[in-house]
Amino acid sequence: MKLRDMLRMSASSLWKRKIRTVLTVLGVVIGTASIVVMISLGLGLKRASLEEIEQYGGLTSVTVMEKDAFDMDASDAGGQKKKQATQHLDDKVLDTIRQVDHVEYAYPVLEAEAMILYGGYQCYTTLRGMPAESMEYLKLNLGQGSLPKPGDEQLSLVFGNGIIGDFYNEKTGQSYWSDGKLPDIDLMESPLMYVLDTENYYNFLWGGSGEEGSTAAMPKKYMFPTSGVLAGSVEDYNSNSYAVWCDLEALKKVLKKEFRNRSIPGQPTSASGKPMKEIFYNSIMVGVDDMDHVKEVQNTISQLGYSAESNAEWVESMQGQYQSIQLALGGIGAVSLLVAAIGIANTMMMSIYERTREIGIMKVLGCDMKNIQGMFLLEAGYIGLIGGLIGTGVSYGLSAVINTLMSTEGSGIDLAAASGISYIPGWLSLLAIGFAVIVGMVAGFFPSLRAMRLSPLAAIRNE
Amino acid sequence: MDRAVIAVSDLYKIYRVGENRVRALDGVSFQVRRGEFCSIVGTSGSGKSTLLNMLAGLEKPTKGKIIIAGEHIEKKSENQLVAFRRKHIGFVFQSFNLMPSMNALENVALPLTFQGIDKKKRLEMAAEVLDLVGLSSHKNHKPTQMSGGQQQRVGIARALVVSPEIIFADEPTGNLDSRTSAEVMELIREIITKKNQTLVMVTHDDHLASFADRIFRIMDGRIIGIEETGRRKTT
Ligand SMILES: Nc1ncnc2c1ncn2[C@@H]1O[C@H](COP(=O)(O)OP(=O)(O)OP(=O)(O)O)[C@@H](O)[C@H]1O
Ligand SMILES: [Mg+2]
User: Fold this and answer.
1) How many A from CA of B201 to the centre of ligand 2?
2) What ipTM was reported for this prediction?
3) Cα(B58)–Cα(B154) distance, rounded to whole angstroms?
4) pLDDT category, A434, cuts 50, 70, 90?
5) C-beta B42 within 6 A of ligand 1
6) What is the distance in angstroms between the Cα of A459 and the nearest Cα belonging to chain B?
């Protein structure tokens, strides 16, 4: 018997019993919709929290730093005390890290303290020098200006949107966070002055002594142009709000000039306290291809002898938490689908009793037992399919309703406001439909077995 | 000389009903030649239907051998029996047993569906057979829109459409009046003679039985006599 004919016969026997079919399908609709909506709530919560983590520095990035001398593994410290020299971060390390599996990109970061001065305001901050060509990985959302161009001789800066709040009045000490008034500075246009030798600047301000005991002189001030400012107000927080970036090479050049023959603050020194020839990086930022590989990459880099940090643990614990919420919610939905499955089994049983004669005739006329079973399985599968399709459609509607209700309420759950508390990804709806079909077929299995085993004699015995 | 297309030897069917044993068939042996039309007559309860059902593989014998078209029926599993019927056997029911939701054409085409024949092809074949039984104008009628005689013609067309070697009919005219019965009998005879098909028919009506080439008389599960009607032209 052809599959097409089996499909046709199953469909027509459902069509013959419209009301019963509709009622049975309704059960599946309710079951599917409740599972999907329940899981969508779990997924929505999870997505919202992942978005939150994303704001705190990304889900796929690993920060590599030198291992602290004190941070040595306990096991190493106990047995062989072969205190390996601290490994500094240089281009060789960078290359090694780039070779690690699943690493998409890696770029170095060199940090330098700086005091920004303008019109009676000052701001103590850290400049983050990184290759201009890598800045795209930061996915910065510029409000004004542009990113520094690779190969620019001139050091130029990109400010986070929160930096303006870090400027404080030299005399009163007030800043935006204390008096609510934004300083009258246009980060793009105002000529900002930078002091890189902050230690001597403080010494100069408060009359301390310089390196060789001499009275500190006012260190050199530089003027660097601003190339861009991030979008957003001073109060919009994300992981980039309080950063100041510049091109790595330009920063290196400026530092070398400022600290000629002296050690650059934050840079390692040789055993005798002499400055080293090379400038080492403070950290290397690593981008991993997928969230699931972050842990692995982190471990590999740790084993190379560096400290590697990421949000992986945070994400893991959060995911564990939401998995259990999802399981609980999905379980509630599953109960209603179970009830629907019993409904399908019942409907199929009834229909087999009614059709004893028909089944018998088909057997006498030479219909294969497998085909008879197949037709009943298909019938149950149809109920599951139709119910699953409609149920998924209904869930999209319910999900939209839940999301609009939650967002207009403006209630405490503002992390959900952005993308909605209920979220149905494509795979969930496909899975739900597939699951409904399988549930239908499983529910229809024993009835179909019964149909297959019915005696053909039943048909011929006169009523 | 015709080879026997049906060979039954020493066939028993014993039903247990509580303590009692009912000997529905009590040692039956006979042969049917290819192309022959046989009728089985007997009083009610004599075991006619039991015999026919066993020949068609709808019921298992207690003891004995049944060879149909060269194959041992009594040894087959239910699934093999279904396949065997699909290939070799047509069945006409007393109570027509048409599918109520299908029209005449679809009913006749149903056994072809089980053989995996394309829709277009099987509807063509069904239409041909319906023409043969004189129901050209009733192809789209549902069973409830036809008379008993017309329904039985559809039933006969359904048995014939697969061109079976052997056709079994259990009181095919049991629900029809005597005139219609005679018409239907003439029709069956004509068609099977043309195609040299074998027909075994159960009836309790001596007149209808006389349409056959041979008549088996059965009583209390035994064959008590075989009559040649002389209808068949011997060559
Ligand atoms: N399933 C069964 N269980 C027990 N006894 C049965 C069963 N089927 C048939 N019998 C018995 O077997 C005997 C033969 O029955 P069968 O149906 O073959 O009679 P029949 O010749 O076809 O009669 P009728 O002309 O009334 O149709 C009867 O005595 C009947 O009671
Ligand atoms: Mg009978």
Assistant:
1) 11
2) 0.93
3) 22
4) very high
5) yes
6) 8
